[in-house]
Structures are given as structure tokens and as C-alpha cells.
Design goal:
The protein is an alpha/beta fold and about 240 residues long. It is built from 7 helices and 9 strands. The chain binds 1-O-phosphono-alpha-D-ribofuranose (R1P) and uracil. The site of uracil has 9 residues, from strand 5, strand 8 and strand 9.
């Protein structure tokens, strides 16, 4: 394949910055572009998966929706890395808390991403694989959060293929293993980045708790998780 790719309508690769924020929700991408970027220019509308490039504190940065699930982020991150030269991919997502100490709006950073998906089977590995974040981005994100006075919870997250699980207690077995929270994309993002030798990180905000059953609204998930956005933008 050459550019433009099947899913991103950009004819020149330098339209997209080397650092791209990837919220699952394309409207969260639009919110970030409109509220945080200077001079944002929209570069993608294919499938309404909005993508924008602008600057943040003078540094070039892009933000684009990844869609929900590993199949979707697998496509977008692959095209960004292999056809548009993207080097730093930072997911900014929502997650469901597995641990009782995590409250709504708390920030979780995925140092590693366990998964129930079969995504790694393509690599034919003689064992299991531990999808892992870039230590460089992870350390920088933790330092930025500390400077801003934002608490972050760093650890293992679960990237699940299933939002509505037939086994209502499945999450408890991951929680027992110390997994902090569930989302649906990080493992595929980390595998694509690890395979290509580029950097990836996942920063999440707790949108609901499987422990307490508290939850935020869809509007809050689109626009209110600004602390993680600030941390991610500072990584440019
Ligand atoms: O808020 P986003 O980034 O989409 O992340 C989470 O929300 C979606 C499910 O509601 C999944 O994509 C999950 O990973
Ligand atoms: O994947 C997700 C994302 C947010 N909340 C959940 O419970 N699951």
C-alpha cells in the first residue's frame, strides 16, 4: 500500500506529526484539537475518524480517533507508523476500574497491557507476549504528572475484546492478579509499536468502576477527561 492509505486521506506524510494522540472517540479528538491545539488543521474524515494537526506550546502534534477495539486501533496505528512515519503514539482513553482504590476521574497509565485477544497470534511466538509501553514515554508522563501535581496510577491494564462479557465475574480474576483497569486497545497498540521499534503509551481516565458501579456520562467521556490530555500533549 502507498499513501493515501485506505483509512487516512493524507497524500504527504509530513502533514501528520511524529507524535500522535489517539483517543478512541473521534469526537474526543475534535475536542482536543479545538480546545488545546494552536492552528489545528483537519487531515482526516474517512469513516468520520477525525484527525487534526496543530501545535501545542509551539510543538507540532497530531490527534486522531482510533475507534473502539484492537482491530480498529490495529489498523490506524499500523498506517500511522508504516506509511506516515509516526514515532510516538499516545492513547488517551477511558477505562473501567478493577481496584477499589480507583475512583472516577483517576488517571491510570498502562505500563503493560494484558489481553484476552488473539492479536499476538500473527507473530507465531513460542509462548505468550507481554505488550509493554515505551519506558521513555512512561517516565516522561510520570514526571509531567508530578510537575502538574496530578496523581497517576501506573501498572498493568487489561485490553479486552469484550465490553459486555457473558461471564460477569471474569474481571475479578484479572483484578486478583493486580490488573488496575480495563479498556480495549492498548495491547494491540503496544504490539504494533514494539514490532516496528517506535514508542507507544496509554494514558486513561477512570470512566466507571466495576467495583462500585459508579459511572460517568458519555458527554464527560468525550470532553471532561482533560488532565490526561494535558499530560499527553506535554509529551510532544
Ligand atoms: O474512551 P475510549 O478511548 O474509546 O476507550 C474505552 O471506551 C470504549 C468503550 O466504551 C473502548 O474503546 C475503551 O477502550
Ligand atoms: O473498555 C472499557 C472502557 C471503559 N469502561 C469499561 O468498563 N470498559
Amino acid at each position: 500500500m502507498s499513501i493515501p492509505t485506505a483509512h487516512i486521506e493524507v497524500k504527504e506524510s509530513d502533514v501528520i506529526a511524529e507524535t500522535v494522540l489517539l483517543p478512541g472517540d473521534p469526537l474526543r479528538a475534535k475536542f482536543i484539537a479545538e480546545n488545546f491545539l494552536e492552528n489545528p488543521v483537519q487531515f482526516n474524515t474517512v469513516r468520520n475518524m477525525f484527525g487534526f494537526t496543530g501545535t501545542y506550546k509551539g510543538k507540532k502534534i497530531s490527534v486522531m480517533g482510533s475507534g473502539m477495539g484492537m482491530a480498529s486501533i490495529g489498523i490506524y496505528s499500523y498506517e500511522l507508523i508504516h506509511f506516515y512515519g509516526v514515532k510516538n503514539l499516545i492513547r488517551v482513553g477511558s477505562c473501567g476500574a478493577f481496584q477499589p482504590n480507583l475512583n472516577l476521574y483517576d488517571i491510570v497509565i498502562g505500563m503493560s497491557a494484558s489481553t484476552n485477544s488473539n492479536y499476538a497470534s500473527q507473530y507465531n511466538l513460542p509462548g505468550s507476549y507481554a505488550p509493554t509501553a515505551s519506558y521513555t514515554l512512561l517516565k516522561k508522563a510520570v514526571d509531567i504528572a508530578e510537575d502538574k501535581g496530578y496523581d497517576v496510577n501506573v501498572g498493568n491494564i487489561l485490553s479486552s475484546d469484550i465490553f459486555y462479557d457473558d461471564d460477569a465475574d471474569a474481571w475479578k480474576r484479572w483484578a486478583k492478579m493486580g490488573v488496575l483497569a480495563v479498556e480495549m486497545e492498548a495491547a494491540a497498540l503496544y504490539m504494533n509499536a514494539n514490532r516496528a521499534g517506535v514508542n507507544a503509551l496509554t494514558i486513561l481516565t477512570v470512566s466507571d468502576s466495576l467495583v462500585t458501579h459508579e459511572q460517568t456520562t458519555s458527554e464527560e467521556r468525550q470532553t471532561a477527561f482533560t488532565k490526561m490530555m494535558e499530560i499527553a500533549l506535554e509529551l510532544a
